[in-house]
Design goal:
six-stranded antiparallel β-sheet, Ubiquitin-like (UB roll), globular, Rossmann fold, binds flavin-adenine dinucleotide
């Protein structure tokens, strides 16, 4: 039987905890690499922040009204602060741009969460694959695997060495870490790596869409569930045709007709039902809702194939229905 020294992931937090807002202040801002700053957040009263596990992220509620998700990349053992790292996006509509241009130490902010859809589970060995800022959720996993004495390796690619954050933190693990700065070493040799990956390993990957698509292709021979990914942006998809759906909200005893041009989330929110959303792109998980009857048409980038087949939960911001009626736990 497979044994592992990595502790089992804690049970998922209750949705109420995930949606809870916590006041924080910026304790420190640090330049980590070209275009990347880290932000240390702490409670203004010096108290402890909610517990989290590797793979978790928080919603950062910025003073300009924008809400963005950022992975926790510090240590889950130190709840006196949360560390995030933010890459400046050139065409930013205000999330990363605000963090880079306006955030200041001492500034009060609010966060929501933590929330975790990229859970680090026990396995015989691990292959971690990170591209660019996708290193953030991977870093705490690497530290946990190393601390537990597990077998692991990390391949980490970026445009250039100077744009790759946390290289110094990874230096003590140089035997297990291979860096691929694109301008020096080219691309991560995913096909060769994944061919050598044993079926009882777990592969955790986070990075830009082309990297994750290449991982999916190169891992096609591995058993379903071996590769777990987190996407910071929704996958590019062909547009899908929407149809009307009737949503029965079992807990509230209300029925809402959702027209084809409205999302289920917006229609339920407009009807005054207790639902919450954040990214509205099917990547953050804030609007996760239990499905009691009916078959969801999953259009998110969070659920694994296994979870999709189960069909017991859905993300209301993007997903719809394959049946004319859905009964939800709302
Ligand atoms: C679960 C989760 C965890 C995340 N963790 C982090 C993190 O640790 N660090 C971090 O910097 N970001 C992270 N993100 C992304 C982050 O939430 C924002 O989307 C990002 O900061 C861009 O916001 P913006 O308002 O600056 O840009 P937007 O206005 O949202 O986007 C500007 C342009 O850049 C493109 N774009 C945005 N993000 C990316 C990207 N990652 N790669 C390529 N193109 C992109 C958009 O498509 C758009 O064209 C995470 C997202 C999710 C869902």
């Amino acid at each position: 039987m497979a044994t592992s020294t990595v502790p089992a992931a804690a049970e998922p937090q209750a949705p109420e905890t995930e949606r809870q807002e916590t006041p924080v202040m910026v304790r420190q801002l640090r330049w980590e690499a070209t275009g990347v700053v880290s932000v240390l957040l702490a409670r203004p009263d010096g108290g402890q922040l909610p517990a989290w596990q590797p793979g978790a992220h928080v919603d950062l509620l910025l003073p300009n009204g924008i809400v963005r998700q950022y992975s926790l990349c510090g240590s889950p053992d130190d709840l006196s602060g949360y560390r995030l790292a933010v890459r400046r996006q050139p065409a930013s509509r205000g999330g990363s741009e605000y963090v880079h241009s306006f955030l200041r130490p001492g500034q009060p902010l609010r966060i929501r969460g933590p929330r975790n859809h990229f859970r680090f589970e026990p396995a015989d060995s691990y292959l971690f694959i990170a591209g660019g800022i996708g290193i953030t959720p991977i870093l705490p996993m690497v530290r946990q695997a190393a601390a537990a004495g597990a077998r692991w390796s990390l391949v980490y690619g970026g445009r250039s060495a100077s744009a790759m954050a946390f290289r110094t933190e990874l230096a003590p693990h140089r035997d297990a870490v291979r860096l691929y700065p694109g301008d020096e070493s080219g691309r991560i040799p995913l096909t060769a790596l994944l061919e050598r990956t044993r079926p009882d390993s777990a592969v955790y990957a986070c990075g830009p869409e082309p990297l994750l698509d290449a991982v999916t292709d190169a891992a096609a021979h591995l058993p379903q569930g071996t590769v777990r990914m987190e996407r910071f942006r929704p996958r590019t998809r062909e547009s899908t045709c929407n149809t009307d759906v009737q949503v029965v909200c079992a807990r509230s005893g209300r029925t809402v007709d959702v027209p084809a041009e409205r999302s289920v989330l917006d229609a339920l929110a407009d009807a005054g039902l207790p639902v919450a959303g954040s990214c509205r792109e099917g990547v953050c998980g804030t609007c996760e809702t239990r499905v009691l009857e009916g078959v969801p048409d999953h259009r998110d980038d969070i659920l694994s194939e296994d979870d999709r087949e189960k069909g017991d939960r859905m993300y209301l911001c993007v997903s719809r229905a394959r049946t004319p009626r859905l009964v939800l736990d709302v």
